[in-house]
Amino acid sequence: MEFLRTPDSAFAELPGYPFEPNYVAIPSGDGSDLRMHYVDEGEGETVLCLHGQPSWSYLYRKMIPLLTQAGYRVIAPDLIGFGRSDKPLKRSDYTYAAHVGWLTAFIEAVDLNNITLVCQDWGGLLGLRAVAALPDRFARVVTANTALPDASNVPDDQISAVSEVARAHYEQIPEHQDVMSMGLAMAGDDSGFGFLHWVKFCDQATELTVSDVLNFSTGGILSAEELAAYDAPYPDDAYKAGPRQFPSLVPIVPDNPAVVDNRAAWAALQQWQKPFLTAFGDSDPITAGNDIRFQDSIPGAKGQAHTTLKGGGHFLQEQVAAPLSAVIDEFIRANPIAGDA
């Protein structure tokens, strides 16, 4: 598999990100290996922090010291195609199944156990699949502004018809060339397929600048230096196949092949008895309401102190890092692993 590797010099002196890099080789799927980067800080029970698209482990820079100070070992990997991890060149190399395989291979290679998963955005779409695949390695789950889409609201006999409607809607979406116009159009689309504006933007926009997405989504709270840090892994568009491809992999269209595997993962989660928490922001139009399904469907969510974090937009790690870290700490302490109480 052909890939690019961002030069180490791109990551020198990033603001708020002093962490030493760690790397592990994982199978690419074609007989070769890919190098996956991760932050590994602190000691104690393992908290696995998974980012989404188009961010990378830099997203957790404010939370890592808070969680390590609270007594935890924090593992924050860069998904393949992101951050300091290798970046396959072809968009076709990035599939939902491949990403799940890369993540589970990472968990096994680093030999993580008794994991408390913290997952946001695509971190949940992948992390929850890893929980279903490797349940014995996980002790708790914290979902934050994420989902596990499985077209559960579409009857099987309507999947083809709804898929055709979705694809027709995609074709009618204009080719937005800036994040703001795309975001406004997505927010004003009441078709049920508004997310396809984001899919088309990432797929076809001449420029996909990661910092523009973070700046728009966080309300302009990031400094110029922080915004530049989000762009650091991507010297040019050739490095962005992963960020561009991720939205196309979300199984919004119900005949997406990932729907079957996600439904199987949901079946496993509906038997999950270990502690499960939702900690969503109150200002994320993308994932609003997904916390309710988790709370209603997963046995381990019953009786937990589910939280809505005031002022938390989609990237709540930027806007409410301290409150979210405190929620995670309280959740772990309230739900000790059997034998540790």
Give a short account of the largest sheet: 8 strands, mixed
The number of helical segments is 13
Helix content: 25-40%
The number of domains: 2
Measured distance between first and last alpha carbons: 47 Å
Beta-strand segment tally:
10
Q: What gross morphology would you assign?
A: globular
Q: Uncertain segments of ≥5 residues (pLDDT<50)?
A: none
Q: Which percent range describes the beta-strand content?
A: 15-25%
Structural class: alpha/beta
Structure notes:
This protein has 2 domains: 3-153 and 257-334, Rossmann fold; 156-249, no CATH class. 38% of the residues lie in helices and 16% in strands. It has 13 helices and 10 strands. An 8-stranded mixed β-sheet has the order 2-3-5-4-7-8-9-10, with helices on both faces. Strands 1-6 form a two-stranded antiparallel sheet. α3 packs across α10 and α7 (210-217) packs across α8. The mean pLDDT is 96.
